[in-house]
Amino acid sequence: MRAYRIAFYGSLLVLFLRTRWDDYAGVAAALYGGPFPAPGSWLPWLRRFWLLTLATSCLGLAQRLSSVLAFVLGTYLLSLDWFFGNTHHGYHLIWLCLGAWAGTAREDKSPLPLCRLLWCLVFFNAGLAKLRHSGLAFASGENFQHILLLTRAGYGGQLNGAHLLLLQHTWLAGTLAALAWLLELCAPLAFFYAGWPRAVIVLGLACLQVGASQLMFLNDFRKMAACYVFWIPWERIGLCARPPARPGAGAESAPGCGPGPPAGVTPHAPDPTAVPG
Fold first, then answer.
1. Residue ranges in the chain assigned as alpha helix (H)
2. Which residues neighbour 197 within 8 Å (Cβ) at sequence distance 6 or greater?
3. Tens-place pLDDT, residues 177-206
4. What is the reported pTM?
5. In this structure, are residues 53 and 73 in contact, taking their beta carbons and an 8 Å threshold?
6. How far apart are CA 108 and CA 15, in angstroms?
7. What is the DSSP letter of 271?
8. Where are the domains of the chain?
C-alpha cells in the first residue's frame, strides 16, 4: 500500500500547491453559510499546515495522525467554496478518499477497496442524477449543445474548434453525450470486474473528464486526477523493477518477486558441519 499512499497524497500536494483560499478571509462572515468557524486572517496558515500534513502523510511520518489531520483540515478547506456559494466538481470525492485513508490508517487495513468503491459511486450518482432530472433527453444533441453554450456564458471561456464542430453537428454532440452518460452509469462495473472492463471504464471516464475540462471550462476536474491513482496496478509495476541477480544465485527469485517456496516448506540453510562429498 505504500505506493498508493505516496501517489495519492503526493498528487494532492502537487495539485493543491497553488490553490489558495486567502480571498475568503476578507469576506464578511454574514456571507458564510457553513457550520464551521468563518475564515479569518489565520486561513493562509491553515492552508500551509494542511499541505504539511499531506507531505507527512505521503512520506509516512506519523501516518495515523497525519492522515487524520489531512482529513480534518481538508474538510474545512475543501468545503469553503460550497459554503460561499461556489461549486467545485470532484472535491467531494477527494474528501471521501481522505476520510477513507484516515479511517483505515492502520497497517492491517487497506483503504484501497473503499476508495475504489467511492470513486464508482460518485460517477454512478452523476449518471443517475442526469437520468432523474433530464431523462433520456440528456443524451440528445440539442441538449448537449445547449449545455455547451450555457457553460461558455457562465465561465466566460472562448469557443474553440471543438466547440464549433459540436455545435455544427448535432449527431456528434448527441453521440458524445450518450457515451459519457453510459460510462457514468457503468462505473460500478469497474469495482466488480477487473481486466478490460475496468480498463475501458476507468480510461473512458478519464477521457470524459479531460474533455469536460476543455469543453465546459471545468478546470477543477484536474484535481480529481489524484483519485485515479487507486486504479493503477502499482504492485505489478513494482514486480518489474527486479534487483540484479547476485552471482551464484541461480534461478532463485529476488525478494518479493516471482514464486516463493511451496506452502508449508521452509527453506533450510546449508549445514556448516556437514563433510563435503
1. 2-15, 43-59, 63-83, 91-103, 112-133, 141-155, 161-168, 170-185, 189-192, 196-215, 234-240
2. 189, 190
3. 899 999 999 999 999 998 899 999 999 999
4. 0.75
5. yes
6. 29
7. P
8. 1-107, 111-236
